[in-house]
Amino acid sequence: MPGGVAFYAIGAYGTAILMGPARPELIGGFGLPFPVALIGGMAAAAFGALIVGLAALRLRDDYLAIATFGIAISVQLVALNFDRLTGGAQGLIGLPRPLFRLFDGPNGFNLFYLGVVACMAALVYVALQVALASPWGRLLKAVRKDETAAASLGKNPTMVRLQAFVLGCTLMGLAGGLYVGFIGFVSPLDFLPILTFQIWAMLIVGGSGTTRGAFIGAFAVWGLWSASGLAVSRLVPAELQSQGGAIQVMLIGLLIVLTLLFRPRGLIGESETVSRHVD
Amino acid sequence: MMLFQVLADGILTGSIIALGAIGLTLTMSVLHFPNFAHAELITFGADIALAALGLTGAFTGPLAPLSFGLPLVLAGLVAMAAAVVLALLVDRLVYRKLRARAKKMSVVFGSFGVSLLVRMSILMIFGGAATYYSTALQRAVSVGGLFRVMPDQVFTLGVTVIIVIGLHLFLKHARLGLAMRAYAENPQLAGVYGCDSERVLRWTWIIGAALAALAGVLYGLTVQIRPEIGFQLLLPLFAAAIMGGVGNVYGAVLGGLIVGLAESLSIYVIPPGYKMAVPFLLLLLILYLRPTGLFGAAKGAVK
């Protein structure tokens, strides 16, 4: 889904608008506590996903890819141009970071926040494992593997796809909201299309269809991205830094293509499930 | 006066979109996947022509009233050839293997990977700065006192018309054109009837890539050449191709004109900052109302 970044952005902006301090020139600024704002951001992402999903999920996969790509562009345009809500190109700055004052310096806060995010990630991971092991999870897998077969058993593939889509987008909204809580501001530059490609690379490298694969892919790709960024800033002369950035993005593209070609199931392929009634 | 100018600009932008969309609609229907890297061939074409221009001797003697002369025409041919080579190479190295996979999305993801690689290579080689083919000022010509156009823009429109007619005749009468239509409709059946699928796929890439490069060169005549021009044309191209019905050459042209006109007319309705969202809104509208395109073509048929 090429538009993932859109829901990440909606979650981030939603959270920022709800928790930001009131300012006369802005519509938002409700000054809500961070957890409430975070839930609001997730709700905004879920609502956006519902509207988009209702429109797009009737489509064939390839049209869906085009449509979500368009959504990513549109959300970015709104972020850039709807100054009264999003602060325009400058973004929303000076957002209160949760419990920041309790810590002496940024290091303590960073460590605390790492803990918070790790807990959230663990929580999401466990919740997803439980959900995927449930009858609903089997339904999800059935639709992914063979939509026609699932439909012939009286399931509604469109409904299942919509649920999965909204759930996935809500989680991306959560990620966006958590990001805002960490850095304390939000700007359109945080949601460039490259983020979508990075997320894809994570899923493709990790092996799509499994939560474990997504986690491993995320760490692997982000590790590579950070390492290549470090290498570029150290090794490439200052006047060629923009070209260095291009090398980083090329690595992502190369990673996607090579993984698809030579390891289509990713690092961790989905394990085959065979009915226990088969020998 | 203002309205006529907006309409004229829309039609001229639309003819560029149309050229790119023809190639996209052909590859989409014959190869059966939306190639997200198609728009990068436009940037590639524009930049290769710029580089080739250095060799073919920069603007020695433009053919009045156009801003360019024989050197750019030659450079354009070089760019088209280079784009064809690139497209065939990528098909051989990447798409061929991915197309064979059961998961149809593999090749779509692959095309996104390719588009990143091509765009960033262009950025590395040609740099991020905006450039022009010619810095000479071109006088706009007034048409009946209603609106003003650049001679280059009229040239672009003329080229588009010639290509559409040529392509139509090719698809209707040439054996290869007929084979392409058959293959788009039903690859297995076309194979049974002895149509050489390798040849069909090869020529689909050749035509699509050459037209994309041509669109890039013509686009470069009227706007600045930047590494992201193709990427920004991606949504307009898809909107045009889907609106016209995938595989429908005339449809792609009409779709391109509609997208171009809608973009330029949108200034009356929404703030200019949102202009880039217009093709997307059109796309949503068409997918809702007529997912098979304005002419309701059967899926995958080349018309």
Features:
A: 279 residues; mainly alpha; 2 domains; 71% helix; B: 303 residues; ABC transporter involved in vitamin B12 uptake, BtuC; two-stranded antiparallel ribbon; 2 strands
Topology:
The complex is a heterodimer of chains A (279) and B (303).
Chain A: H1 4-19, H2 34-56, H3 61-81, H4 83-86, H5 106-133, H6 135-145, H7 147-152, H8 157-183, H9 193-206, H10 211-235, H11 241-262
Helix pairs in contact in A: 1-2, 1-3, 1-8, 2-8, 5-6, 9-10, 9-11, 10-11
Chain B: H1 2-31, H2 38-55, H3 70-99, H4 105-126, E1 141-143, E2 147-149, H5 151-173, H6 175-185, H7 187-192, H8 197-222, H9 229-243, H10 249-265, H11 278-289
Helix pairs in contact in B: 1-5, 1-8, 1-9, 1-10, 2-3, 2-4, 2-8, 2-9, 3-4, 3-8, 5-6, 6-8, 9-10, 9-11
Give the number of DSSP strands of chain B.
2
What would the CATH topology of chain B be?
A: ABC transporter involved in vitamin B12 uptake, BtuC
The main sheet of chain B comes to:
2 strands, antiparallel
What is the strand tally of chain A?
Answer: 0
Largest interface: A-B, 37 and 42 residues
Average residue pLDDT of chain A: 82
Distance between the termini of chain A: 37 Å
Q: How would you characterize the largest beta sheet of chain A? A: none
The assigned structural class of chain A equals mainly alpha
Question: Can you characterise this structure?
Answer:
The complex is a heterodimer of chains A (279) and B (303). Chain A has 279 residues and is mainly alpha-helical. Chain A has two domains: 4-191, no CATH class; 192-268, no CATH class. In chain A, 71% of the residues lie in helices and 0% in strands. In chain A, helix 1 crosses helix 8 (157-183). The longest helix of chain A has 28 residues, at 106-133. The radius of gyration of chain A is 20 Å and the shape is globular. The mean pLDDT of chain B is 84. The radius of gyration of chain B is 19 Å and the shape is globular. A two-stranded antiparallel ribbon of chain B has the order 1-2. Chain B is mostly helical and 303 residues long. Chain B starts with a helix and ends in a 14-residue tail after the last helix. Chain B has one domain: ABC transporter involved in vitamin B12 uptake, BtuC. In chain B, a hairpin with a 3-residue loop joins strand 1 and strand 2 (147-149). Classes of the chains: A mainly alpha (279), B mainly alpha (303).
